[in-house]
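Repro:
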Amino acid sequence: MLLFCDNTLEAAASVWGILAASGVVVPISPLTRTDKLAWLLEHSGASALITERRLAPVFAPAIGRAPDLRTVLVSDPGGDPATAGQTDWASALAVETTDAPVLTSGETDLAAMIYTSGSTGRPKGVMLTHRNMVCAAESICQYLTLGDDDVVHGIMPLSFDYGLYQLLLSVRQGARLVLAPPFTLPGQVLKQAAAERVTFFPGVPTVFALLDELRGRTPWDLSSVRAVTSTAAALTGRHITTIRRVFPNARIFSMYGLTECKRCTYLPPEDLDRKPGSVGIAIPNTELWLIDEFEQRLGAHQVGQLVIRGPTVMRGYWRDPLETSRRLRPGPTPGEVVLYTGDLCRLDEDGYLYFVGRMDDIIKSRGEKVPPQEVEMVLSAIPGVRESAVIGVDDERLGQAVQAFVVLEAAAAVSEADLRRECRDKLEAFMVPTIIVIVPSLPRGANGKIDKLALRRPIERTTERLPDDAAQQAVFGEERVVRTGKVP
């Protein structure tokens, strides 16, 4: 069942309703566009779509392209009655039944499928069993020491596995979860945190970069916050300084993981200053090691691919046996599989992990994964565009900014504004390029392929700030367009 909602009470209730009905939760970002939503509905084989009335312009054109879809449940308190083929939330709740749901799921059955972008340009459905998610929740609760008297601030989207797990962890431990709207105005979020006496504040580096822009203007009493958690990338010294200033009583947990196994490592708060840049040690009940290209284990200070072993490792990718066989391979114990992450890392002499890069060119921006191929497909489909290339460039606020290089057809009357408008129509806001460079040609290697390494070299450019877009702002974005540029 596909869940296409914001952080609402109905969305949270739907997660448990789906599981109680022995269904599979498929959370999708409410920023998803129509074409992609239609593809997700068809690819997942979803029998039900749970969504919001305000998203009708997106989902209405998509549902007709979903052959397996039987039910559309729309939540909108006080809204218009449901249209034909749809059921509104109030009508669904009004149905009386004395039949208790028949639970048929076992621990090896699927509980959730979370779509994550991949190197092919198409999202991959990560299949997670009940055992995967229960073991991940147990491990995370253990090292965080989350208790029934805690109050968790749900500022991360429920469609993001980090946000979804705030719900799962809170219910498991009996903690209270305070759902929040998208992180657009840091002051309002901190005001809510103070009013609700939040004790756990989950974020990503982009959130903490925005908090830094408050420049010390934090008049709210945030002394109740005893833990701040962060994932997606290692925290920088500036992020840590900001967190300590805003949340003076909080222990800071820097963490790292993949959707394919939820969480790999965490850095104990007492090691934050002793191991700068590290993403920590393996979480409880998980083992990790590094291998070279010949699959030989590596020692300290050698860079290799990270391999994860443990009960949190996914079942595989939905309807993608080839990619599953690439990532899940035989482990040391007969019959088990381990996860080949595709991430390049190194370990120090104490066994602390440091992230180096990705074996593919996935961009991680605003805590989200951006596949360059998906952005390139949209750009290259625009009339007047001959070809394009997309890379990630380091950005203190975003982690990585999405930068696009575009080659136009001769005499094509296509502006940067046109390119951006098309991207906004077809892509989630966090995928829209932050920087666009129109160039006469793209550098190529001896094999004829675009040389993205050459694209990373310094370019001559001028930048101009464009007016803020509400959707971009909702995912912590800043827009810049390069009016002219040269690639050496």
